[in-house]
Amino acid sequence: MYRRTTRLLGAAGLLTLTGTLAACGSSSQAAPLGKSSGSASAHPEWRKYTFTIGDNGGDGSQALAKITGAFDDAPYKVKFARFTYGPPLVQAAASGDIDLGSVGDVPPITGAAKEYGFKIVAVNRSLTPSQSNENIIVPKGSKLKTLAGLKGKKIAVPQGSSAHGLALNALKSVGLSPKDVHLVFLDPAAGATAFNTGKVDAWSIWNPQSAIAVKNGARILAKGLPPIDQTGSYYVASAKSLGDATKRAALTDVLQRLAREFAYAIKHEDTYARAVSEEEGIPLADAKASLETFETRVTPIRKSDIAAEQKLADAFLEAGQLTRKVDVPSITDNLLPAGYDSSKLTFG
C-alpha cells in the first residue's frame, strides 16, 4: 500500500488536508473494527494531538478509514495529506509536515542521503511475495523482448521512487548501468503521458498505473520481484514526533489503526476495491485489477529488511544515483512491539 496515484497531482506533491475523520459519520461503515487499546478514556492526554498521515494514493487509506470507522473512537484527530509519490512524502515527514506515511523502498534511502529527519518505523510486508506490485512495462506493439534490449532506450522513471530502484536493479541484472540507457525522470502523471504518446520506450511504474496500462495492451518486460526488487514497503515517521514519549505512544496507536483497517480490507476485497475506486476516481474494474497484488500486513522492521535496504542503498551509490553512503540502521526505529503482525487480527 504505497507509492500509487492516478490523479494529475501538483508537482509540489502535497494537495489537500482532509477534515478530521472524527467528523465522518459511522453510517458509512462497512463494519466497525472495534476499539483500539488507545481509546479516549484510556488516554485523555492524546486529545491535544492532530496527526497528519501522508497518503501516496492508490491504497484507499483515507476512504477505508471512513468506511471502517478505524479512527472513530480515537482521542486524537487525524488528517490525510496526498502526495504524488514517495520522495516528497519522506521530505514532509522530515520537516514535520506529516507525522506518518507509507512509501516504497527507495524514498527512505534518497531521503537519508539528503539528511532528512525521519525514521523507518514499520514494514508493510507482502502476503503474496510472488506477485509484483510494480513492473517495467513497454507499450502495445513494442519490439522490445528483453531487458538487455533497453540499451540506448528511453525509460520513464519517477526519480527517487521504488520504481527507480527496480529500474536500476533490473538493468544491473543484465550487465547494464544508467549510462547505458536514458532514464527520463518523470512523476507518475507525466510518465503516463510520455508512455501513452510514445515519447519513451518503457516505463518503470507501480499499480494501479501498471495494471491499467497492461489492461489496455501494454506488456510487462520485467516484474518487480526478488532478487531485483522488494515486494514490501515502509512506514516512515517524523523524528520530532518519535522523540516525544507521549506523542510516540499515540503515534503507535495511529499506526496500529491503519494496520487494522488494511487487515480488514484484505479480508473484504469488494469493500476495498470500492474504497480505492472512490478515492482515486478510477473504474471499479481497474481498482480490482490493481489490488490483485496488494495483500500486505504491517509488522515491525526485521534485520533482513535493514539488510535489503542497505543493499539497495549501496546499489544506488554504486550507480551514481547517490552522492553519499546511507547507513540504514541509523534511520530505523521500530514503532511496533515485537511479534506484531496485522494479518493475525480478527474482526467481528
From TrEMBL:
<dbReference type="GO" id="GO:0042597">
    <property type="term" value="C:periplasmic space"/>
</dbReference>
<dbReference type="InterPro" id="IPR010067">
    <property type="entry name" value="ABC_SsuA_sub-bd"/>
</dbReference>
<feature type="domain" description="Solute-binding protein family 3/N-terminal">
    <location>
        <begin position="50"/>
        <end position="283"/>
    </location>
</feature>
<keyword id="KW-0732">Signal</keyword>
<dbReference type="GO" id="GO:0042626">
    <property type="term" value="F:ATPase-coupled transmembrane transporter activity"/>
</dbReference>
<protein>
    <recommendedName>
        <fullName>Putative aliphatic sulfonates-binding protein</fullName>
    </recommendedName>
</protein>
<comment type="similarity">
    <text>Belongs to the bacterial solute-binding protein SsuA/TauA family.</text>
</comment>
<feature type="signal peptide">
    <location>
        <begin position="1"/>
        <end position="22"/>
    </location>
</feature>
<dbReference type="InterPro" id="IPR015168">
    <property type="entry name" value="SsuA/THI5"/>
</dbReference>
<dbReference type="GO" id="GO:0016020">
    <property type="term" value="C:membrane"/>
</dbReference>
<dbReference type="InterPro" id="IPR001638">
    <property type="entry name" value="Solute-binding_3/MltF_N"/>
</dbReference>
<comment type="function">
    <text>Part of a binding-protein-dependent transport system for aliphatic sulfonates. Putative binding protein.</text>
</comment>
<dbReference type="Pfam" id="PF09084">
    <property type="entry name" value="NMT1"/>
</dbReference>
<keyword id="KW-0813">Transport</keyword>
